Amino acid sequence: LTPGDLAGVRVVVSAGGTREPIDPVRFLGNRSSGRQGAALAAEAAARGAEVTLVSANISGEVLAEVRHPSIRVVSVGTAAELSEAMTHESSLADVVVMAAAVADYRPAAVSERKLTKEGGGIPAIELVENEDIVAALASQRRSGQLVVGFAAETPEDASELLARARRKQHRKRVDLLIVNEVGWERGFESPENAVHILGPNGADAGSASGSKRAVAAAIWDAIARAR
Ligand code: C5P
């Protein structure tokens, strides 16, 4: 596709991973570096899109790699902050890409003071469920808006991977689902990635592998075809 094929398209990409505080010094988090989402923002900007990157705890180093005049960065920490930012930023967007790794649960209460071992015993952290942000965005999408979700899976085999992904796509009502096979050594923190792409209604829209930027290019090709 041509470099300017996203000219004027308004894109919102979430990337990184949320952190749910336990106390002033601890959190529940995940291993997402934000590199794939940042590459999606960079690729969209290079093709002419107006991009808002909603960054959940992405390092300054990764953000510096994707600096571009057409990318505006909005920083958030928790899933609740991410939800609020996405709802606000996506109201005028043509394409919403939810690449951030969102905590499914958060501590029911955040301790005002650091938990200590002093009273003895092992603390139990009660969890409550976070809202499914992409499902909410998809259910409120404005007409013509495309919503893209991600799924990081650790499947037993390839057929289970896609079956589970199709159920997820249907449940969340997203137009496209980018399926990422991850494991202890794969996906996270790595400069490379490999994905399967499910198009509208679970149709196979191909796969891509290589640098995260190359994978981003293939994902935007699939999004452009679906628009
Ligand atoms: O269900 P699962 O976490 O595998 O779904 C992944 C997709 O859903 C990603 O697009 C992620 O950004 C999104 N998600 C969300 N809100 C959550 C959990 C996941 O938007 N609470």
The major sheet is characterized as: 8 strands, mixed
What percentage of residues falls in helices of 4 or more residues?
25-40%
Structural class: alpha/beta
Whole-angstrom Rg: 18 Å
How large is the count of helical segments? 6
Mean of pLDDT: 94
Pathway: Cofactor biosynthesis; coenzyme A biosynthesis; CoA from (R)-pantothenate: step 3/5; Cofactor biosynthesis; coenzyme A biosynthesis; CoA from (R)-pantothenate: step 2/5
Organism: Microbacterium aurugineum
Cofactor: FMN; Mg(2+)
Function: Catalyzes two steps in the biosynthesis of coenzyme A. In the first step cysteine is conjugated to 4'-phosphopantothenate to form 4-phosphopantothenoylcysteine, in the latter compound is decarboxylated to form 4'-phosphopantotheine.
Layout of SSEs?
Blueprint lengths: L9 E7 L3 E4 L2 E3 L6 H12 L3 E7 L3 H6 L5 E6 L2 H11 L5 E4 L6 E3 L19 E3 L3 H7 L6 E8 L4 H15 L3 E6 L10 E7 L5 E8 H15 L1
Parallel strand pairs: 1-4, 1-6, 4-5, 6-9, 9-10
Antiparallel strand pairs: 2-3, 7-8, 10-11, 11-12
Cytidine-5'-monophosphate binds next to helix 4 and strand 9.
Overview of this protein structure:
29% of the residues lie in helices and 29% in strands. By secondary structure, it is of the alpha/beta class. An eight-stranded mixed β-sheet has the order 5-4-1-6-9-10-11-12, sandwiched between helices. α2 (60-65) links the parallel β4 and β5. α1 packs across α6. The longest helix is centred in the C-terminal third of the chain and has 15 residues, at 158-172. The relative contact order is 0.16. Cytidine-5'-monophosphate is lined by residues 79, 98, 100, 102, 104, 130, 132-134, 149-151, 168.
